[in-house]
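Whiteboard transcription, Tuesday session. T.W. wrote the structure tokens on the left side:
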């Protein structure tokens, strides 16, 4: 089976995984207590969405390796932040342990892909 060429950030596997995870977090966080609306709920939604938004930005910065890698480092930081909020959600009993572990593992996969790209960005850089 031939893979389609990547034309946009939305074609990236890492983007698709992160987007699906962010949507899962959004749905699950609807059940968080109302008193968490302006703290944990906002934070976990913001960081999970930021992974995707920063990936889109990184994709558009591929003309310059340093800018591309710097933006991917932002993506990596947001993914790790999301993992931290997931741990809080589990510890506060807003998320069951198994669901928390599954989403945490999804972000480990995102981080693994990001680190691979960060360590070898040249195939992704636009040639002049």
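and on the right, the sequence the group agreed on:
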């Amino acid at each position: 089976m031939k893979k389609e060429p990547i034309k946009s950030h939305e074609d990236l596997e890492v983007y698709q995984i992160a987007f699906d995870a962010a949507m899962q977090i959004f749905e699950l966080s609807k059940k968080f207590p109302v008193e968490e609306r302006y703290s944990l709920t906002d934070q976990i939604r913001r960081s999970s969405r930021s992974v995707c938004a920063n990936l889109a930005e990184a994709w558009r910065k591929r003309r310059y390796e340093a800018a591309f890698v710097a933006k991917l480092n932002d993506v990596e930081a947001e993914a790790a932040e999301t993992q931290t909020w997931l741990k809080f959600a589990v510890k506060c009993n807003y998320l069951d342990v198994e669901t928390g572990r599954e989403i945490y593992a999804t972000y480990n996969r995102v981080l693994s892909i990001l680190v691979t790209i960060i360590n070898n960005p040249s195939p992704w850089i636009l040639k002049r």
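Someone added at the bottom: The radius of gyration is 16 Å.
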